[in-house]
Design a protein that fits this description.
two-stranded antiparallel ribbon, 12 helices, alpha/beta, eight-stranded parallel barrel, 293 residues, globular
Amino acid sequence: MPVEPDAYRPRRSVLYMPSSNERALEKAKTLPVDALILDLEDAVAPDAKEEAREKACAAVQSGEYGRRELTIRVNGLGSQWHDADLSAAAAAGPDAIVVPKVGSADEVRGLVAAMEAAGAPEHTRLWAMVETPVAVLHAEEIARASDRLGCLVLGTNDLYKELGASFAPGRAAIQTSLQLAVLAARTAGVAVVDGVYNDVKDADGFLAEAHQGREMGYDGKTLIHPGQVEACNAVFAPSAEQVQQARAVIEAFETAQAQGKGVVTLDGRLIESLHVDTAHKVLATAEAIAALS
């Protein structure tokens, strides 16, 4: 059966934007990005937190960001700003509220209860950041904790720090963590986006890491600079060749079924129902991306 297009909302490029920066918020309206994380946490100085909160909520309610998915990242549990951030964000009604350093299923359930108590509309989901060893080890429990949880977001910088690991091309130190997060997301049926690449001048390094994330199964990648958006969109979108191949697989399978054949081959390769399911997913993803234009 064809997959449902709504199940494949593109999240190829997910850009952090400091909510205290009016110019950045304005620029975000013109970027070809799939999703924005309006940040109240790391990108905002302590004395600018309240102003950033007001600006992020106003941006969400402005209706000026088109089809872009709008989320707000609040300050973490236990911080002096968390409760006010969560209440304000819930009232503003973004597509999602992003919470850093979520470490357990109980925390997810507590966050969802707080969102609902603050009046979050039904469409506002929770995105949980996986950026500590305990979160990685409990990623499946976190992903399954609530139907309101829609996405796992990897916080790779914090993960390196918590592990005491050193960054190197290929990310060998965190590959197990990256893979466990994908397994958890797929098991729970939620989206998952990769961490940031810090060197905004290293285009080749960024592309290599984006391709690695795509090959692992990530839906997209979080970004720290607008210059990374277009390359990221290209990496995480089905290529023209993949779309053509998907159509050929579906056509060959349907033709064989109509002819009563038990074995289906295409270019000498056996086609099974799992290949057809994958082909439908490729087409649904391509159609969802095309609908953004």
